[in-house]
Specification:
heterodimer; A: alpha/beta; Aspartate Aminotransferase, domain 2; Aspartate Aminotransferase, domain 1; 7-stranded mixed beta sheet; 3-stranded antiparallel beta sheet; B: alpha/beta; 13 helices; 14 strands
């Protein structure tokens, strides 16, 4: 009989349940029983199979489960386009200040002057970072910001008589771009990248017809390559009455170095959970504020935060051309608190240094690995670098295998098989948070794996070997979906 | 402002110092960091530093932000009866402590399952709780919040009925949710028909029945924005053939009220904030969505499923991903990518700690205390209850005076007395919504009764 390490077998919380256990205590009810508060027909039976566990059971369970995750606090987490940077704990402390955490979203303005002032300052800061006249803080994620931005473009065009039909999107784009454009009511036309991975002006010029509402582009693009012709692209679009949307996922590459507004960009979202360090929390929460050029200001979501001459602040619902409300209440306020905390901690020189060291770190990895891994696009890159598995496929070892083998070396893998224009892509973004030693350890691991691909390919093909579980049968999960725990019959 | 030398400027969050930078530049083969930015044209380069405050030490940061927080008047120093889609319930101490563990807080989306089993298993557990609470079959990993969950629910329903474009939404669904839906669908050719309420505050069934012709879905909220618990069976009976969406904005109500799935609703969605998440001025919260099994391949957002690894060990993985934007792109069921994973984790912890008994007791106490207060307030001369229907933990109160003025009076007594309904509905300027949870003591409820009596008496003078 083999025994597995206990850590790999943490059961589901439901499997810890035992009749009679308690994880809570409330004070005794101190009001007289209100008979028939609601009719008996509206009262449910017990919640079948809901758990009964103690506080100890809960703390042990979630502590043990947590140990099955890797995290940025434990080391490099080089997911390309995800900007996994250090999450300062002062941000967490500030967000938990009772005056913020206990404030209610429907309080009248005079009771929440501190919150409104904070939001106002965050907008001022983002306006300066973007080089744009107005920023909405309502969107709660990057994709939510994209939808917000494209809805504004649609409304602006509709108001001038024709909302148009198409959004242009390069083939290197994030999947959220076409999805957001579709939900905003547009059809997608894909633009082919050139051999630098960027968009040729001639290709754009030919594609921008009277039917085109906007180009959605990522700067730098998903290869980490800056679109040198960004201003000319804006000019082409503007000349035809179309807009330039920038996916700001990669803002970390040029923070404080260049500004979207100065590039002719009309609308940009910023993922505050990337560039501005609010923790990813295993997939969220995020925040996706959207900056706009002068032409789009009338269309931003309501309410906005405004300052009166006397220094007081208020929510302004009076934007007659607004696209409307993108979400209940005031966006992910306590993510915004963390982001402003970070911005104040960094300041102007710190923000510039973010981009400088992020780009330095990425280029260092590029320099150390380019002899062993194929670089499908040789153009200079900024904050991330995309390799492919071309050198390894001869040994029948592929990107997925390399990614899994990295886990055995203690690293989270890079983003893989994205962007789609690279076959077998390995997209590496170290961020500015990594010290040289960590970058060296990662590069050493990648180089060791490259050697293993030659010498012991089977070892790589069957990786990982040291993780809590090994490769999963993902096809089975999709073919016979089990999407919740079912009690034993 | 002169630009600082990147070799000498230093920040505590960015480890590499000048010696590291020099060594790395040598390996790269360039002589300065600036050269790495040569691909950005000078014409768009900033020739100055950003004009923003900082850099601040933690000491300065604390000073400034605490001063800002101190400008707020909140439940931290007042007795609050605010609800309207955001509720202050008991938050067990261990939840926040656990959330601060780096492995939860600072992990990314679990794209690599071998090193993300903690997050994946927790989501699977969260999905299971949602199914139990709503008596439906399949829950997703989370959506942004209740309002956007309703948008996604309407769009899901629309996909099931290809040739229909009309959706019926009760006017007693949270006003912000309805506004958000209007924003989301503005270019999608959908028609939104809103139906009103009867004198008891419940959906007007006659109007509802009349609105169903040609509609693909109906969305009602229970307890509705006025706190009134709807009659699910009557609504189901009146909406034959439509996809039925139950919206829950006060999630603890599922601990005591009959679950939508048991009445024939196809989708239950809403806001999970009440599960022990602080109101925090509106976010982050967690939207949930649970559907009948037949709808699972139409679900927006991430789903976690069970499988095995190559050694046959049970394990969890993101699944049915062909619905999602990173695979299906422009044809995806939703554009959502980042969701509210950490808040869903907090909800999983809350639901586990409270468990079968606690979820019921929280709901029962909230309901008993709210109804105690409601009955006592109704005895004050001049106070009316505009809606007679059964309530869970929130209800509307009417006085002969403007709600804003009454609420301002209560604020002097350190009471945040409620939400002025006139901000949301015409003709309700004298009404406000009062929410009660298990956190309120009888003393606070009695003090509210006395303070409201006094406020009315003051207004009369």
């Amino acid at each position: 009989m083999t025994t597995e390490p206990k850590m790999n077998r943490e059961g589901l919380i439901f499997e810890h349940s035992k009749k009679g256990r308690r994880g809570y205590k409330l004070p005794a009810l101190d009001v007289p029983d209100q008979e028939l508060a609601i009719p008996a027909s509206l009262v449910r039976d017990e919640i079948a199979n809901e758990v009964e566990v103690s506080e100890v059971d809960v703390i042990r369970h979630f502590t043990r489960l947590s140990k099955l995750n890797v995290s940025i606090d434990a080391g490099l987490y080089p997911l390309g386009s995800c900007t996994m940077k250090h999450n300062p704990r002062i941000n967490e402390e500030i967000a938990r200040t009772p005056g913020f955490a206990q404030s209610h979203p429907l309080q009248p303005d005079h009771q929440v002057q501190g919150n409104l002032e904070l939001l106002w300052w965050l907008e001022q800061t983002l306006k300066e970072i973007f080089g744009m006249p107005r920023v909405t803080l309502q969107p709660v994620a990057g994709a939510h910001g994209e939808l917000t931005g494209i809805l504004m473009v649609h409304k602006a065009l509709a108001k001038s008589g024709n909302a148009r039909k198409y959004i242009l999107i390069p083939d290197s784009a994030h999947g959220t771009n076409p999805a957001s454009a579709a939900f905003a009511g547009y059809e997608i036309k894909e633009l082919k990248s050139n051999n630098r991975g960027t968009v040729d002006l001639s290709v754009l010029e030919a594609a921008v017809t009277e039917d085109v509402a906007a180009l959605m582009i990522t700067v730098p693009n998903t290869l980490g390559v800056f679109e040198r012709e960004i201003k000319a692209m804006a000019d082409i679009l503007h000349a035809k009455g179309a807009y330039l949307y920038c996916d700001g996922a990669n803002l970390n590459a040029y923070l404080g170095i260049a500004r979207p507004g100065d590039m002719g960009i009309d609308v940009i979202h910023s993922n505050l959970h990337k560039t501005f360090s609010t923790p990813h929390g295993g997939g969220g929460p995020g925040a996706g504020p959207v900056g706009v050029s002068e032409r789009l200001v009338p269309f931003i979501p309501t309410p906005t935060v405004e300052r009166r001459d006397d220094g007081s602040f208020y929510l302004d619902f009076g934007h007659p051309d607004s696209i409307g409300r993108m979400r209940a209440f005031n966006g992910n306020f306590n993510v915004l608190v963390r982001a402003l905390t970070y911005m104040r901690s960094m300041g102007p020189d710190g923000m510039r240094r973010i981009a400088q060291i992020a780009v330095l770190n990425a280029n260092y990895i590029r320099a150390r690995l380019k002899g062993s891994y194929h670089l499908p696009y040789d153009a200079p890159s900024l904050h991330e670098v995309v390799f492919s598995d071309k050198n390894q496929t001869a040994k029948d070892v592929h990107t997925l295998d390399i990614a899994k083998r990295l886990m055995d070396y203690g690293f989270h893998p890079p983003t893989i098989y994205f962007p789609l224009i690279v076959s077998g892509a390995l997209m590496i973004e170290p961020t500015e948070s990594e010290p040289k030693e960590e970058l060296d350890a990662f590069c050493d691991a990648m180089l060791a794996i490259a050697r293993e691909c030659d010498e012991r390919p089977e070892l790589v093909r069957t990786a990982p070997h040291t993780t809590p579980v090994r490769r999963l049968d993902e096809a089975r999960a999709a073919r016979q979906p089990i999407l919740k725990w079912n009690p034993a019959p | 402002m002169a630009l600082p030398d990147p070799l000498t400027s230093q920040h505590r969050y960015i480890p590499n110092a000048s010696e590291d930078v020099r060594e790395m530049l040598d390996v790269i083969g360039v002589d300065s960091i600036d050269r790495l930015f040569d691909t950005i044209p000078d014409a768009v380069k900033l020739d100055r530093l950003l004009d923003v405050p900082g850099p601040w030490s933690e000491i300065e940061t604390r000073r400034w932000f605490r001063a800002l927080a101190a400008k707020n008047k909140t439940a931290a120093d007042h007795t609050s009866f605010l609800g309207g889609g955001a509720y202050a319930h008991y938050q067990p101490a261990c939840i926040d402590q656990l959330l601060l563990r780096a492995e939860w807080l600072t992990a990314y989306t679990p794209y690599q399952p071998e090193v993300s089993q903690g997050t994946l298993q927790s989501i699977f557990e969260y999905q299971t709780h949602q199914c139990m609470l709503t008596a439906l079959d399949v829950a997703n990993a989370s959506l942004y919040d209740g309002s956007t969950a309703l948008c996604e629910g309407v769009l899901l329903a629309e996909r099931l009925h290809k040739n229909k474009t009309k959706v019926v939404i009760a006017k007693s669904v949270h006003p912000h949710y309805r506004e958000t839906v209007r924003t989301y669908v503005q270019n999608l050719g959908l028609e939104i028909v809103e139906v009103g309420w009867k004198a008891d505050g419940r959906v007007d069934l006659t109007e509802l029945r009349g609105a169903t012709e040609g509609a693909f879905a109906v969305a009602i909220q229970s307890p509705n924005f006025f706190g009134v618990v709807e009659d699910y069976d009557a609504i189901v009976e009146a909406t034959e053939g439509l996809t039925r969406i139950a919206v829950v904005a006060e999630a603890t109500s599922l601990g005591i009220l009959t679950p939508p799935g048991a009445h024939g609703f196809d989708i239950c969605l809403g806001e999970g904030q009440a599960w022990g998440v602080p109101p925090q001025f509106g976010g982050p919260y967690v939207g949930f969505m649970v559907v009948r099994d037949a709808l699972k391949r139409h679900m927006p957002g991430r789903l976690v499923g069970e499988t095995v690894d190559v050694d046959g060990r049970r394990a969890y993985v993101l699944t049915l991903a062909t619905r999602e934007q990173h695979i299906r792109r422009g044809k995806a069921t939703s554009n959502i990518c980042t969701n509210e994973a950490l808040i869903a984790l907090a909800a999983n912890m809350y639901l586990s700690l409270m468990g079968k008994e606690g979820l019921r007791e929280v709901a029962l106490q909230s309901m008993q205390k709210a109804n105690y207060l409601r009955n006592r307030l109704a005895q004050i001369a001049g106070v009316e209850l505009p809606f007679a229907g059964p309530v869970y933990n929130e209800f509307a109160v009417r006085t002969p005076f403007l709600a804003r003025e009454i609420l301002a009076d209560l604020e002097h007594e350190k009471i945040l007395g409620g939400i002025a309904l006139g901000d949301f509905y015409e003709g309700f300027n004298n009404d406000f919504l009062v929410a009660v949870t298990e956190l309120h003591t009888r003393e606070q409820l009695d003090h509210f009764v006395a303070a409201l009596s006094a406020a009315i008496a003051r207004e009369r003078r």
